[in-house]
Specification:
This protein has 15 helices and no strands. The protein has 351 residues and is an all-alpha fold.
Length: 351
Amino acid sequence: MSDIAPRVWTHTSPHLRKVPAVDVIMRNVVYALIPICAFSVYQFGISVLALLVVCVISCLATEHAICKFSGKATTVNDWSVTITGILLALTLPPGFPLWMAAVASVAGVGIGKMFFGGLGYNVMNPALIGRAFAQAAFTAPMTTWVPIMAENRFAEFIPSTLTPPFLRPVPIQDWLSNVAADGFTGATPLALMKFEQVPTDSIQLLLGSTAGSAGETSALLILLCGLYLVFRKMMDGRIAFSVLFIASLTSVLFYMIDSDRYPGPIFMLCSGGLMLGAVFMATDMVASPVTPLGIWIYGGLIGFITIIIRLFGGLNEGVMYAILLGNACSPLINSITQPRIYGATTKKGAT
């Protein structure tokens, strides 16, 4: 009989017995995004389909090329870069020129992810880095909107989609006059409300019958797709809930102050990219906090800043900047909200 005592390993919580592999989680996120992509293509036609394909291929090619150049094994098989391409495409206008989308994809993956070392090291959401680059470099195309359900959307591209590289997008005014429904102003619900004080019906916002970025129109569909991941335990629903809760609470306070000037919480939650950002971008596992308290602070910060930018900023939308700021604050939030280990003391040197 051996006299060696068995080894006993002690660890602090949480005690995880089985964790899904990264590629499994990422693949399920892609599954959750497929209905949103399909609905976007149904609304805007082949231009959005081409936008999705170009963004995904450009993101995959960029990550693969950087891995090969740096002498590392390619990491495109973990599906994370596929999510980046899909999310980037869904945040762009439906008629966004394809060559610009490719450039934004390269910037998002190259600068926002691979520059920091790849998956697990990026400090900000790569898709939003790509969109921020596009917002700064291609301002006019990023604010050009088209109506939904154009008659020939499956037979012809939106004219600006096929703009040659380094040339200005083809004007779409003549095309709009032929396909747009009566009363289409070329503005999103947020822009109409902020600059013209024109509200949009809540049912339209929920179901997605409004102009906007390719994948942000239907708040209800986005929420349902996010719930799929929450029920599969592949998304931290607390982050999305805290973003939406604080955003609604902040908008309620301003609505109570002046209901004629400030829109109500339903409009704020269902318009623009708040729902898509809260569900699929703020929940980025790498760029969000991991401490229990930090999760709520992080989500609340994003929700609050989003509403403040919408109401008082020069832009009518603030989700992208709010999430990027939240990503930047995530390490600090983690640091100041670390829970005390059971049995430990707060006094240095005490036993």
